């Protein structure tokens, strides 16, 4: 028998030049709250292909989507409901699974329009111009209403019991005989014990599950139009019986390995240690808090979650109490001791621990400790083992961890966080009091948990929201919010077992080891007089004082805040009226009522007066902060809206959301800019030999998946170019292009100047804007010398997406040649500082750079350049 599954056969058909894959109907795009990813679109196309078959009722009435944990199976499920309702006139759907927790989650996904995880268009489902409602039922009506989807949500256990023990006004086989029914089975591997079992005697649990499989089979066969659609991330196709059952039913297959390779997950890194539990908990907490700070530094809104995993409830409860005491007793002195020890032990500069401890080492520890004590309390820690866990709001908190209003930062658990736990902002899993004797079944369970934790957290960075990793080939601290760290013991036998389990689950892992590319200063340049006697000129800074912070502008906060209205209409296909590309947008000014502004402030503890006063000493009260034109009193929101929507259409909740986004933005700028050093126009020379040295750049070895190829870091052999001081350039595409540009003019430069050297600035040389506090590290310095002067030329390649945002940097560069107050200490008459306009792959910007470069460095006028 052929080993080719249905999925592969359909893919072959789609690749046939005579076969045209079906299009996904517009009403599916329009009625979902999220845009479909490419693989989800492919899954739906393959499903639609089967349902358009003339023999669909016989050949394709039972299908299975085999898709990785976190790949959005439930969104595909929602789309199949819409398709079967519209195209096959199905109105009656039974969703079943083996867990109450998944039932509650799915209820929100499919019916709770106020839930952040609601999967349908929040403006309502509309098909063929008719509003369609979803009605949750226990039994299906004999006469269904038009434009209504009836949905029964139940566990497989209850479904089996209801049908096995029929009762009056209950669900029975008899009542379902004449009804077209769609069965939606989530975590479908649980209903396959009968199929996967061998000839051995079944245990009690397997006997129960065997009857479930019979029940589902009986329901499917009740009516010729019935459908059974299964969804699972786990199916063992090496089992011959399962393969035979599902060979013709797996309509789409997208396993975890492919999911991770395509970049839709976090990277997974194992952190091995033999530390005691208390030390592991503190370090795990510090890493989570470091991630929060890094995110804020880059303008990313993030509340990271830690999971402390134990193997016994008693251990978990004890660890919970111990952790709270550790936080309560944490002091600045203890924090400093932890940091010093951490830096001593972790000396690999590219490792996450060194980066974390170095970060803390340069911060105000009293504020760090204060933040920790605020973020980790009994109110922000959830113990999923307590007896009252399901009976109170804990279950809701557990399934809404990404919500800004959800306070939870840490979870202690043993085994309750398995199937159905859907969390994106989990970044650390810390094993507590588990020895090295873990069995293969235990590590298999851990691998499943890691797979769930590896779900990617989509975040907005540089005004773009991504659902895919974007920093694999970019050297940045933001890698920390694209990585799940699994803190585990350093025991070879245990790790071997865990790696086998992870491999079986198709989970890619890395150790906290870094592949590094190294650029070395050329020996010839080290011997040159310039390296040994030359200088780099950096502007001096002076400390700011509290008097320098009198208004938002002093913190680089604009009182005119631009924000795009976020709705499925704009970001995820939207309604049928706005599915075409190039939808018109317009801007309106939003006046925020004072009570909404106050509510936003109340929901963000940073803006509590005692804390705010530390950063804005000029205010005397919250009333002043709210009303003064120097701060919130002059606040304006410019909202970019899609066509057909006006400011008056915004709800109070949406207005509050806009306020909260501004407050997060303002908080980041306040913290980043307060009490920084201010740049001056006075430059002083620093010996090149004290600044310039070999450097390394961290590289991951996974497949590249950066949207913009210009962001991908690559090496460029520069050994034969004496004018470049390193043996190789470790640069992205845009930087490489700029080096090529300079190379095309190097002969002209060398004929005009005695010395010409291009210096890559790898986070060594920092300037601070004059009369401002913003730091700037230009990517390159062109060092030139003739008989009269030494020239230091600032060069900065800049991607299109940053041209406007970083305009102040270009202004800084250009001011080098024009400001009369620029002074070079001791060498003012011998040194010339020159800034050149940004280099970009935007043709207009590139031409502007070219003209500026030739005019300032080669003495060619604009007229000469144009004629040339």
Can you describe what's shown?
The chain has an 8-stranded mixed beta sheet with strand order 3-4-5-2-6-7-1-8, sandwiched between helices. The longest helix has 22 residues, at 652-673. The protein is globular. The N and C termini lie far apart (72 Å). 37% of the residues lie in helices and 20% in strands. The chain contains 32 helices and 33 strands. The chain has 868 residues and is an alpha/beta fold.
Record keyword descriptors for this entry.
seven-stranded parallel sheet, eight-stranded mixed sheet, 32 helices
Please count the beta strands (DSSP E, at least 2 residues each).
Answer: 33
Task: Give the percentage of residues in beta strands.
Answer: 15-25%
State the helicity in percent bands.
Answer: 25-40%
Largest sheet properties: 8 strands, mixed
In terms of topology, how is this protein built?
Layout: H1 6-15, H2 26-30, H3 38-51, H4 56-59, E1 62-67, H5 73-87, E2 92-97, H6 100-111, E3 125-127, E4 130-136, E5 148-155, H7 156-164, H8 173-176, E6 181-186, H9 193-196, H10 204-220, E7 227-232, H11 240-246, E8 250-254, H12 256-261, E9 267-273, H13 277-297, E10 305-309, H14 313-328, H15 332-345, H16 352-361, H17 365-375, E11 381-383, H18 394-398, E12 410-413, E13 426-431, H19 440-453, E14 459-461, E15 464-466, E16 483-489, H20 492-504, E17 510-511, E18 515-519, H21 523-526, H22 529-533, E19 535-543, E20 560-564, H23 568-571, E21 585-590, H24 594-602, H25 609-615, H26 622-627, E22 636-642, H27 652-673, E23 677-687, H28 688-691, E24 695-699, E25 714-717, E26 728-731, H29 733-752, E27 755-760, E28 767-768, E29 775-776, E30 780-785, E31 790-795, H30 807-815, E32 823-824, E33 831-835, H31 843-858, H32 862-867
Parallel strand pairs: 1-7, 1-8, 2-5, 2-6, 4-5, 6-7, 9-16, 9-17, 10-12, 10-13, 11-12, 13-16, 20-22, 23-32, 31-33
Antiparallel strand pairs: 3-4, 14-15, 18-24, 19-23, 21-22, 25-26, 27-30, 28-29, 30-31
Helix pairs in contact: 3-5, 7-10, 13-14, 15-16, 19-20, 24-27
């Amino acid at each position: 028998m052929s080993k080719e599954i249905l999925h592969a056969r359909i893919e072959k058909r789609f690749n046939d030049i005579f076969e045209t894959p079906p299009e996904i109907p517009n009403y599916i795009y329009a009625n979902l709250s999220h845009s479909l990813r490419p693989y989800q679109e492919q899954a739906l196309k393959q499903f639609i292909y089967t349902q358009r078959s003339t023999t669909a009722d016989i050949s394709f009435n039972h299908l299975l989507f085999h898709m990785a944990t976190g790949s959005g199976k439930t969104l595909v499920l929602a789309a199949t409901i819409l398709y079967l309702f519209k195209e096959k006139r199905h109105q009656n759907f039974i969703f079943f699974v083996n867990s109450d927790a998944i039932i509650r989650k799915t209820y929100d996904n499919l019916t709770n329009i106020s839930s952040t995880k609601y999967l349908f268009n929040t403006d309502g489902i509309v098909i063929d111009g008719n509003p369609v409602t979803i009605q949750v039922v226990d039994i299906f009506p004999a006469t269904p209403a038009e434009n209504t989807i009836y949905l029964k949500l139940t566990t497989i256990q209850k479904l089996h019991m209801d049908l096995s023990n029929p009762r009056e006004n209950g669900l029975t086989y008899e009542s379902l005989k004449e009804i077209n029914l769609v069965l939606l089975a989530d975590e479908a591997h649980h209903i396959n014990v009968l199929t996967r079992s061998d000839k051995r005697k079944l245990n009690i649990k397997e006997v129960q599950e065997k009857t479930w499989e019979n029940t589902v089979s009986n329901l499917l066969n009740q009516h010729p139009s019935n459908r059974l659609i299964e969804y699972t991330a786990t199916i063992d196709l090496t089992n011959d019986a399962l393969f035979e059952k599902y060979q013709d039913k797996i309509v789409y297959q997208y396993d975890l390995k492919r999911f991770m390779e395509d970049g839709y997950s976090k990277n997974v890194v194992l952190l091995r240690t033999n530390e005691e539990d208390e030390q592991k908990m503190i370090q795990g907490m510090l890493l989570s808090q470091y991630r929060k700070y890094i995110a804020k530094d880059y303008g990313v809104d993030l509340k990271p979650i830690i999971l402390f995993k134990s193997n016994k409830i008693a251990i978990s409860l004890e660890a919970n109490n111990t952790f709270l005491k550790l936080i309560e007793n944490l002091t600045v002195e203890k924090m400093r001791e932890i940091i010093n020890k951490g830096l001593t032990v972790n000396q690999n500069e590219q490792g996450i621990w060194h980066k974390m401890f170095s970060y803390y080492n340069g911060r105000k520890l009293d504020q760090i400790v204060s933040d920790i004590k605020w973020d980790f309390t009994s109110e922000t820690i959830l113990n999923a083992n307590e007896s009252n866990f399901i009976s109170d709001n804990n279950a809701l908190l557990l399934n809404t961890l990404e919500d800004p209003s959800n306070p939870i930062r840490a979870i202690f658990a043993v085994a309750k966080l398995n199937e159905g736990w859907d969390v994106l902002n989990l970044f650390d899993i810390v094993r507590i009091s588990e020895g090295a004797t873990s069995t293969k079944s235990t590590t298999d369970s851990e691998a499943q948990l890691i797979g769930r934790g590896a779900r990617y957290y989509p975040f907005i960075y540089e005004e773009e929201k991504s659902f895919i990793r974007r920093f694999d080939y970019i050297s940045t601290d933001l890698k920390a919010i694209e990585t799940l760290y699994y803190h585990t013991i350093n025991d070879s036998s245990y790790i071997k077992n865990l790696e086998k389990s992870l491999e079986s689950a198709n989970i890619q892992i890395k150790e906290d080891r870094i592949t590094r590319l190294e650029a070395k200063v050329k020996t010839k340049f080290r011997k040159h007089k310039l390296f040994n006697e030359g200088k780099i000129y950096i502007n001096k800074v002076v400390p700011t004082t509290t008097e320098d912070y009198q208004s938002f502008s002093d913190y680089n906060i604009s009182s005119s805040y631009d924000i795009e209205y976020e709705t499925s209409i704009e970001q995820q296909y939207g309604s049928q009226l706005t599915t075409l590309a190039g939808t018109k947008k317009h801007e309106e000014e939003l006046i925020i009522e004072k009570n909404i502004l106050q509510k936003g402030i109340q929901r963000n503890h940073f803006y509590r007066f005692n804390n705010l006063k530390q950063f804005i000493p000029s205010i005397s009260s919250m009333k002043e902060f709210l009303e003064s034109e120097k701060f919130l009193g002059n606040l304006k929101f410019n909202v970019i809206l899609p066509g057909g929507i006006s400011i008056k259409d915004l709800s109070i909740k949406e207005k509050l959301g806009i306020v909260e986004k501004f407050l997060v933005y303002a908080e980041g700028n306040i913290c980043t800019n307060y009490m920084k050093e201010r740049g001056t126009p006075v430059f002083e020379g620093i010996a090149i030999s004290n600044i310039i040295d070999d450097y390394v750049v961290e590289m991951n070895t996974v497949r590249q998946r950066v949207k913009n190829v210009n962001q991908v870091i690559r090496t460029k052999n520069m050994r034969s170019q004496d004018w470049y001081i390193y043996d190789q350039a470790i640069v992205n595409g845009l930087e490489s292009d700029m080096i090529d540009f300079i190379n095309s003019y190097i002969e002209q430069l060398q004929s005009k100047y005695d010395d010409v050297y291009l210096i890559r600035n790898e986070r060594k040389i920092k300037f601070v804007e004059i009369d401002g506090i913003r730091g700037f590290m230009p990517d390159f310095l062109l060092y030139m010398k003739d008989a009269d002067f030494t020239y230091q030329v600032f060069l900065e390649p800049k991607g299109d997406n940053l041209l406007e945002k970083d305009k102040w940097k270009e202004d800084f560069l250009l001011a080098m040649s024009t400001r009369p107050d620029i002074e070079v200490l001791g060498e003012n008459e011998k040194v010339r500082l020159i800034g050149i306009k940004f280099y970009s792959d935007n043709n207009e910007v590139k031409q502007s750079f070219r003209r500026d470069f030739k005019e300032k460095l080669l003495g060619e006028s604009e007229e000469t350049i144009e004629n040339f």
